[in-house]
């Protein structure tokens, strides 16, 4: 009789181990999928951050362009500011590409 009890306990333990193994495999699969999702979202965030930065630059340019008075001295001043902004943007792009 003890042999029968032992067999039953071993079978029960074997079933539990199989259930745990299946859960482990399912969790591994879910983890991989979540990791892929995070990677896709990080790429999307990076893309959106670049777009936001570009839109800020465009907004600043438009703001300056619409406030430019017509006298030559002020126009020259704003041209210098725009040129500086362009240089700053170029420098940032070079740093990003480095």
What does the model show?
Helix content is 93%, strand content 0%. With 98 residues, the protein is mostly helical. The longest helix is centred in the middle third of the chain and has 65 residues, at 2-66. It is rod-shaped and about 105 Å long.
Classify the beta-strand content into a percent band: under 5%
Backbone structural class: mainly alpha
Q: What coarse outline follows from CA principal-axis ratios?
A: rod-shaped
Mean pLDDT: 89
Q: Helical region count?
A: 2
Helix content: over 70%
Radius of gyration computed on alpha carbons: 32 Å
Termini gap: 76 Å
Short description:
With 98 residues, this protein is mainly α. The protein is 93% helix and 0% strand.
Summary tags:
93% helix; mainly alpha; rod-shaped; 0% strand
């Amino acid at each position: 009789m003890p042999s029968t009890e032992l067999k039953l306990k071993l079978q029960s333990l074997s079933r539990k181990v199989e259930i745990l193994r299946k859960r482990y495999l399912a969790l591994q699969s879910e983890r991989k999928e979540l990791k892929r999702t995070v990677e896709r979202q990080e790429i999307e965030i990076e893309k959106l951050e670049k777009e936001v930065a570009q839109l800020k630059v465009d907004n600043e340019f438009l703001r300056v362009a619409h406030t430019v008075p017509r006298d030559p001295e002020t126009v020259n001043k704003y041209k210098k500011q725009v040129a500086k902004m362009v240089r700053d943007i170029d420098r940032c792009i070079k740093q990003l590409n480095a």
